[in-house]
Amino acid sequence: MFLSFMSAKNIFIVSISILFFVRGVAFPVFAQESAPSASTPPAKIVNYQLPYPGMLPDNPLYFLKVIRDTLLAFFISKPLDKANFYLLQSDKNVEASYLLITQQQGEVSLAVSTFSQAQDDFHYAITQTKDAKRQGYNIKGISEKLAAAQQKHVQILHALAKQNDKKDAQEIQNELAREEIFAKEVKILER
Question: Which of 20 and 69 is assigned the larger pLDDT?
Answer without folding.
Answer: 69
